[in-house]
Amino acid sequence: MEATAERGDFANQHLLNPVLLRLLGDVRGRRVLDAGCGNGYFSRMLAGRGAEVTGIEPAESLISFAREKSTEVSYVRAELARLPELEPFDAVVCGMVLTAIPGWKPAMRACVEAVRPGGLFVFAITHSAFEELSGIWRKYGEYRQKEHLAEYEIAGRDASGFHRPISAYLTEVAAPGCRLREVVEPGLDPAVADGIESYLRMPNFLLVSAETACPLSP
């Protein structure tokens, strides 16, 4: 956790953080929820940019570490699908969480409901068309996938992930009336690639920005 406490790991630093920050825009004075904040590094980045940040994380070890690192962020231990009663946020960001949990639909729904009307919901997931990109590319010199349309669990070294079609996430975020603003498939800058050819040619991540529905005028 200490090694990634400032800006996250390599993928966070070079593929995810720059896009997430751009999609969120100017956060000065805005209330932002970091849903599934992990060790809290991104919450602290947002607070450093002037946001009023709440970080939600269910793991005790991660939330304890995050609290030790900063008193500027309000860190709360809770499940995403059962968020505590909080004032609506101007923006909710959910980075690399939805593809890691089985109950992703209630978690996404809770995130959307936590945003004020007209606010932003931004999320990042592993790109389901290129989930095991680096390992498969190293083995074959290209990317191979046998199944995309089904939903299934992917066993990992530390924890399992879950494959779902891209359409599942886009349909779910659109269901409550959210308006898609941008979908991003980031590629790695050649200046920092250092021989990682797969990330130059294929996107390992998918990021989505959506605007929550405003109430209809009477």
TrEMBL record:
Q: Which residues form the Methyltransferase type domain?
A: 33-123
Q: Does the keyword Methyltransferase apply?
A: yes
Q: Alphabetically list the UniProt keywords.
A: Methyltransferase, S-adenosyl-L-methionine, Transferase
Protein name according to UniProt: Class I SAM-dependent methyltransferase
Q: Write the lineage as a comma-separated list.
A: Bacteria, Bacillati, Actinomycetota, Actinomycetes, Pseudonocardiales
UniProt keyword Ribosomal protein, yes or no: no
An example GO biological process term is: methylation
State a single Gene Ontology molecular function: methyltransferase activity
